[in-house]
Amino acid sequence: MTPRDNELGAFLRASRSRVEPGDAGLAGGVSGRRVRGLRREEVAVLAGVSADYYARLEQGRERNPSAQVIGALGHALRLGPQAREHLFRLAGLNPRLGPDSPRDLVHPSLLRLLESFAKAAAYVLGPSFDVLATNPIADALLSPFGTERNMPRVLFTDPRAKEVFPEWELLRRTTVYALRLNAGQFPDDSDVTGLVAELDEASPEFRVLWADHDVAGLTRLSKVFVHPEVGRIELTYQTFDVVDAPGQLLLVGTPEAGSRSEEALTYLASVAEPA
User: Is the confidence at residue 123, as pLDDT, over 80?
Assistant: First the structure.
């Protein structure tokens, strides 16, 4: 099969050659590797598919991947919006099935609802606890983590998490137990399975907690942040299931009236307002 006959495979090979193992959250360096970037087996693990299936896809022996698989590969290979669109087209799929941004997964009416919480931190989580959408206050609270918006990945791979979340250990534990609950509810969700495989490889602490096999929903009613600009913020959260999108959660965090946390949130809201 010539490269022109297998443009998808050629693009996958080129894309994985550009991803360093460390950038993908995998342990180990580049010593002893015969090729640059990720191995096929590593891409398969990150995407939540079998190594044999990924090999057949790259070799052009598998010609009908699902949108879910292609979306997972785009995430595993850390593709940007345009490259992700290109990947969908090469697979013969509508790029609309591979959203340009996580907000595209959230219903427009829910996005409007987010913006209505002018004095609260509001955001939408997906089944793998990706932050799919935020209002300006929530976006400001999460700003210490840059563009990373997957909360388990933040908690287990970003050293800043321990500074931002004083109750870091408890938060990590409850997040893992809630993620295991979602893994049981959505066994075919490649984002969940891929994230679990990624963190199992990258974090011994995650492996230990995952091995507990404990499950619990996100029922904890409070969360503490230490924001670099405004300091400590204590919020009480309410969690709502999104009926039209199983697995999505709307979280709304509010401070106690008249508290320093309320003042801090008011300040964050003011600086987050568009000029």
Answer: yes
